[in-house]
Design a protein that fits this description.
binds magnesium ion; alpha/beta; about 550 residues; about 15% strand; binds phosphoenolpyruvate; 8-stranded parallel barrel
Length: about 550
């Protein structure tokens, strides 16, 4: 099917802004002709075939490692992980077995990858997401074997809109925002790799856009990262006018310098999500009032053994030390397990890790793990003098919250919990009887409310925080905070969406924590609307029939 010459497609908007340019399609597959010419590879024996495999793998892994050196933060971590996955001994063993059984090398690689894809898919969570990476590795290895360039993003001759089914981290990490003006994918949701990297780069991005891969190479596209509309074959002069207007609006946003409040002066705390000391230092340069989510587990992704309390304190102090007077830092205790496997904490072999022993639950069978972490946090808080709040992830019951709060208070710190499980939202008023604050993790709250894996690209329409049922849980939680006079923040991706941020504030949410880069657009948007309008936005979003209708209704109210 081809897309009509002039039409408008619609997907999920994830990074606002208007951009235009010719469609640039990601080179997805190795040419079947090249594979056919290669055939069985004409190797003297199985050892020679495996030597060719090893050379191809080394080239692919070195390529990932080079890109990792040029990247920072999550992109660098993902690329390093991809390099490791390419060199995986288990994968090599499976290829070698297939070759020994008489298969041609390309067939042997395909069969081995297929075998691992099945295993990863069955494991679910982050491992399932690694299927995209594994398939990407296969394409690259096969390209090397048959003597073709590695698939990926071609370098365009002019600034272009990048189109893909979905993007692997290796595709997105080296993107040059001067040459790639926008990203549009057929699949993927608001928490996909594509969305995360696009947010980092600040490139307008629309995901889950049915039909986009049917547009022809070079077709002129206008991408609106706020409405989710992708105009196919529009008028270039009109597009240029929209792009200029959007650029001017974004420049104005960048000048916003906080502190945040609505147009009628109701203050809203804007905070940063950070992963380590360097990201905290970076965030402290933005107009934030501290950190609303320090994901401590991200410091230990490569650790094989649990660091001592003192070692942990050094890491935590590097984050706390970046903030001071009038600011505070919310440290989240280890959220290991499921999509964030940590060698020294995660339980192996769970059937359904997203519903298994993750987050706070890991401390039930290993209380020392929590005690040592809280000791490390206490030492860091005392050393830096920064106001430190501590919250637990994946809290399901009031008893869990009370138990956690007691441990945190015993160390002179302020206890809170994340609201990620619908049970915690429904009992928010009782949770607030035992803790001092709540922080809504909309990524997991959406996953658990909608029973849809946050990593499943085919379920992106469900894993959307604009789903009215998710908003209802947020509204219940915010109302409980208002009644108790305690702070209720949002620290999931929803907080970074300027439109949704207004609706959240209208529900009674008192702080929003997000990637540092998202702070200025959210702050600027809030400064333009009154609390009455925020409340009307909340009502409109809650009453909408689906996420798209909610976005449209709120946009109409705010503009
Ligand atoms: C969330 O679930 O919304 C959250 C902030 O936690 P994480 O994304 O780290 O699971
Ligand atoms: Mg979470």
């Amino acid at each position: 099917m081809t897309t009509p010459a002039h039409s408008v497609l619609r997907g999920t908007p994830v990074v606002p802004g208007v951009a235009a340019g010719p469609a640039l399609l990601v080179r997805g597959e190795v040419s079947p002709d090249a594979i056919a010419r290669f055939g069985d590879g004409d190797f003297a024996d199985a050892d020679a075939a495996m030597a060719a495999y090893d050379d191809a793998v080394a080239a692919v892994a070195d390529g990932f490692a080079r890109k990792a050196d040029q990247a920072t933060g999550p992109a660098a971590e993902v690329l390093t992980a991809s390099a490791g996955l390419a060199r995986d001994k288990g994968l090599r063993g499976a290829v070698s077995k297939n070759v020994a059984a008489g298969q041609g090398l390309v067939t042997a690689v395909d069969g081995a990858v297929e075998q691992f894809v099945t295993i990863f898919t069955n494991m679910g969570g982050l491992m399932a997401e690694r299927v995209t990476d594994l398939e990407d590795i296969e394409r690259r290895v096969v390209a090397h074997l048959v003597g073709e360039p590695e698939p990926g993003v071609p370098t365009p001759a002019e600034p272009s809109v990048l189109i893909a089914e979905d993007l692997a981290p290796s595709d997105t990490s080296g993107l040059d925002p001067a040459l790639i003006t926008a990203l549009v994918t057929e699949r993927g949701g608001a928490t996909s790799h594509t969305a995360i990297i696009a947010r980092q780069l600040g490139i307008p991005c629309v995901v889950g856009t049915a039909g986009i891969t049917d547009v022809g190479r070079g077709t002129f596209l206008v991408v609106d990262g706020e409405s989710g509309e992708v105009e196919v074959g529009g008028d270039p002069a009109e597009a240029q006018r929209r792009v200029e207007a959007s650029r001017a609006a974004r420049e104005e946003l960048a000048r916003w310098s906080g502190p945040a409040s609505t147009s009628d002066g109701i203050p809203v705390k804007l905070l940063a999500n950070v992963a380590d000391g360097p990201s905290a230092v970076q965030a402290s340069a933005e107009p934030v009032q501290g950190v609303g989510l320090f994901r401590t587990e991200l410091c230990f992704l490569n650790a094989t053994d649990e660091p001592s309390a003192e070692e942990q304190a050094d890491i935590y102090a590097s984050v706390l030390g970046a903030f001071g007077e009038g600011q505070h830092v919310v440290i989240r205790t280890l959220d290991a397990g499921s999509d964030k496997p940590i060698a020294f904490a995660t339980l192996p072999g769970e059937e359904n890790p997203a519903l298994g022993v993750r987050g706070l639950r890991l401390s039930f069978g290993n209380p020392g793990l929590m005690d040592r972490q809280l000791d490390g946090i206490r030492i860091a808080a005392e050393r830096t003098g920064t106001e430190t709040w501590v919250m637990a992830p994946m809290v399901a019951t009031v008893a869990e919250a009370a138990d956690f709060a007691e441990k945190v208070r015993a160390r002179g710190l302020k206890p809170g919990i994340m609201v990620e499980i619908p049970s915690a939202a429904l009992l928010a008023h009782r949770m607030l009887e035992v803790v001092d604050f709540l922080s809504i993790g909309t990524n997991d709250l959406t996953q658990y409310a909608m029973a849809a894996d946050r990593m499943a690209t085919d379920l992106a329409h469900l894993t959307d925080p604009w789903q009215p049922a998710v908003l209802q849980l947020i509204a219940i939680t915010a109302e409980a905070g208002k009644q108790a006079g305690k702070s209720v923040g949002v620290c999931g991706e929803a907080a970074a969406d300027p439109l949704l941020a207004c609706a959240l504030v209208g529900m009674g949410v008192t702080s929003l924590s997000m990637a540092a880069r998202a702070v200025r657009p959210v702050g600027a948007q809030l400064s333009r609307v009154s609390m009455d309008t925020c409340e009307a936005a909340a009502e409109a979003a809650l009453g909408a029939s689906d996420p798209m209708a909610g976005r449209d209704a709120v946009r109409a109210l705010l503009h």
